[in-house]
## 1
Amino acid sequence: MTAPVGGDRKSAVMPPGGGEEVREAAGRIGGEPRVLGRPLVKHRCGNSATWLRYPRRVTRPEFERARSAEAKRIREAAILEAATRLAGEHGVRAVTLTAIAAAVGMHKSAMLRYFETREEIFLRLSGNGWAEWSQDVRGRLADEGAASGEARISVVASTLADSLVARPLFCDLLAHTPLSLERGVSFAAVRSFKVRALAEAESVGAALCRSLPLTPRQAGNVVATATAMAGAMWQMAAPGTELRRFYEDTPELTHALIDVGPRLTDILTALLHGYCADTAA
């Protein structure tokens, strides 16, 4: 055993007066043995136990188990923030539970007290993404002005596409949600996410009905098409990845390069034209 810093092993192990004095002192003050204001701890060696003094004050770990609802909320927010940052840097697919725990400063087993799986963390982020996107789209549609006819359709299509492309993590999550995230959590977690996401999708659909002559069913299909295509095309575009750079550096594969915004706008414009024509007829 290495001697503690600041003195030889003998003087650090036991204060003058021996173990009896330490035990008597501990009994008198009703607490742990201390030397010069510093706590002593038992160190077991073989069949004996001696008191050792730490060379510096012992501090508590940075993260302790949350004991209140507010503490749990703060801890969950820290986990979600770390997952958001890592997914933004490396993509959802590459982020592990261990990496998130390390970024937060927690052991993986401790983090499972707040989220049952890695998938639950990202499913929560997906739900947050739906709420943020819905609010943004509804605000943009309300501020569009008095455009009508062809111009109105183009504005609505570009609004939907641009608002999605502006959220890279949400686009990434849109693809992973049905493929893996919903399948890696409890039914209770799936229900909580679905209720939230469907409510936000319905809110966007209602805003579309106020902007264009669409039925609720048509508006719902537009929202479903926009989000499904954004998720799929984001994976094909592979922005910021080695695969994307490979496409760019290989002339015969340049057709695989996808610019999500313009292509999604074209698809939505065609869909909206067809629906509006049906409604007018």
## 2
Amino acid sequence: MNPDIKKQTEALKKKFRETSKKVKTEMDRAIVKCAQKVERDAKKKCTVDTGRLRSSITHRLKHEDATKPVGEVGTNVEYAPHVEFGTSPHEIRPVNAKALAWTAKGQVGQFNKNGGGGTTHRRYYVKSDGTATFNKEDTRQFAQVVHHPGTKPKPYLYPALNENKEYIRKTIADAIKKVAD
């Protein structure tokens, strides 16, 4: 092979390797930037009770193979799908006890003093500070089964992704332009 052609071929191969690394670096940066934006917006949209779900939302960059970088945003909290998609009506039964117990704060309800099977009921109203305003009876509720009506969906991940589609397109396009220049 002609030494000049061999030299030019090696230089071209080197240029391709450098360009490939640059493309990978820029795409990784762009995907992380997009994932961070979706994460921030998901946290803003996430309903909050204790804050556990919101604080668990994270992002990561994953490579399915050498040419496919993927940005992931999600959570490892076991109840996250129930918040995002809601639940259908279902029964709740005790697992490690004979009965379920809960406090019905801010609700009007019936309290069975005998814990589920008796007949002594007291009507009460519990204020948001946890104090009963009608009587001084215990405000705990007991049951061997609860027929839960299900919960409505409170989506936060899908809307955060969908609302950022244009931002993602632009960020990826800008990364490609940066490499091409």
## 3
Amino acid sequence: MTYETYYKQSDKILRSKAIANHNAFENVLTNEAAMVNMGHEVSINFRPRLRNSDWDLSGTATFALNRDYTTALPDGVRQLIQPDNTSGYNLPQFFRLGRNPLTFVLYDYKGVYKTDDEVPVNPLTGQRYRAGGEFSAGKFFRAGDPIFTDINGDYILDENDLVFVGNSQPAVTGGLSVFTRYKNWSLRTQFSYTLDRDILNTALTDRFRNYDTPTGVIEGNQTMSRGLRAIGCLQCMASTWGQCGLSQCVRFYAFDSLQSLSL
């Protein structure tokens, strides 16, 4: 049996940083980020003694616990949210000091507004709950729109309302290699596994994209399929998925729908 432990700190990691829009370009490369990677790995070799010399059996089993932590971000900030431009879904990529950079953050989906009266109203301004952040002002929620929790209570849905929904880094990884021989015949097999990780159901999200504009009818910048988008959410909730898969499915689909909402 072999046991190994490691601790690795990576400083001056290159990443893109947004700058003021009056410059000639929007982003610059900076090396202000840092990350720590640590873990434990165990390898067990076995070769039982067989009575029949025609047979031979040996193998190796491995177990690994790996953890990553963000230790520094550009401009000395404690947390940073940027869109993931590599997945094709424009998902928010969350970075916070002391937390794993593979953390999933999405909007907390609670259902669909049945009527306009169900939409919360800001008592200070008299305006209904609306979308903010990258969305232009004046896009208010109404009947048929998904219900997203307003985490900070400002009646504006933006990046401040994102919540943790999972992590794609496995808690345990490992593998099993087995070699078997009988006389002049041999067989080698290799297995690998991961335990306790979260995966966003992007395959089901792609299916729900058909509910966005199923007829292809577009009026200006507004789609004509708001009702069908809500039906997609309800169908997802009525699926036979387990609790974990259902929660991620609903939340992810709702977030993806919001990206293309025209209110």
## 4
Amino acid sequence: MTVIVYHHEEQVIATDSRTSERSENMVVTDSAEKLSFIGPLPYWFTGSTLHINAYLIWSATEKPREPLPDSIQLEFLTIHNGQVYYGKVEKGNALAEPLQHSYAIGSGKQWAIAAMDHSATAFEAAKYAKTKDTLCGGQIHIYSVSGHGWKRRKQ
């Protein structure tokens, strides 16, 4: 799975780079980039890569389009007009709400949130999640959020 961390005070998103096949208990890669785009907007998804790609294809389809299949289940963070949003895709609907606090998604979220509760940065929270959740791993990617959008940061 993954860990995607948003630290509100720091205005930073941090992600691991592991993708895994949970049903096979297997690491697919430790060098995945979790960043995707729908139009100009950045998205960081958790969930099956098959579901992520199906959602991206569905999103790129011109309207009117077929309804989103009920089987697709995802969580995501996105940035729109400098605001970070948490969202969920389930039962054929995509919903999002603005985040006014630090949060994390993915299989390592409870570890990352606990680390931030004890003053960890987004990077430190993602790093800690990697030590506790075997489905998290690889390099940590960091993105700064501002009123003008976002940019990738070096570690």
